[in-house]
Amino acid sequence: MTAMKLVAVSAGLGKPSSTRLLADRLSEATRKQLEPDQPVETRVIELRDLARDIANNMVTGFPSPALSEAIEAVTGADGVIAVTPIFTASYSGLFKSFFDVIDHTALAGKPVLVGATGGTARHSLALEHALRPMFAYLRAVVAPTAVYAASEDWGTGTGSQGDDLATRVTRAGGELAGLMRHGRTTGGVAEAVPFEERLAALRL
């Protein structure tokens, strides 16, 4: 059986990065939902390592080999996890620029799970007013649960969104896995699957 390809994009700037940590947790939750019935190849793309390449591409219109390979990994994946830090109530410029250099039709029908990190829960709505509309414009199929992790959420107990981070991560991973599995069973032609059917797949 051909392995599914799951690619997480992390726009974290630091090392270590809470954004990368969230991307890793979402990847693991999704992988667990797919395996052992479906083999999964996972990869995390760190945009901080591609910052200069992305900027050069914005100016010249030509991607470097490293950036081209990262774009191919994202557009060729069965599912994408996109995680950004929140700056001034929206996604980071690095995060937006990466998806700006991808052809605007390349993510059509692709299952995408969005996540974000920030210092305060006040920024959690950026997932709904910034990230989700952007991927909707790109015609991706965005999982219903978006995961925001504030500084307080990395501890124990109830987090900023009313339940603990682990619960939200597990729920979101299950939703993305359902969308990925449904897309694969239709022969990979995700655009031909009505959105209502994709939502129904989450209940399976």
UniProtKB/TrEMBL annotation:
Q: What domain of life?
A: Bacteria
User: Known InterPro entries for this protein?
Assistant: CE1759_FMN_reduct, Flavoprotein-like_sf, FMN_Rdtase-like_dom, NAD(P)H-dep_FMN_reductase
Q: Which UniProt keywords apply?
A: Flavoprotein, FMN, Oxidoreductase
Q: Where is the NADPH-dependent FMN reductase-like domain?
A: 4-154
GO MF annotation terms = FMN reductase (NADPH) activity
Checking NCBIfam families in the record gives: LLM_duo_CE1759
The protein here is known as FMN reductase
Species of provenance: Streptosporangium saharense
Taxonomy, top ranks, is: Bacteria, Bacillati, Actinomycetota, Actinomycetes, Streptosporangiales
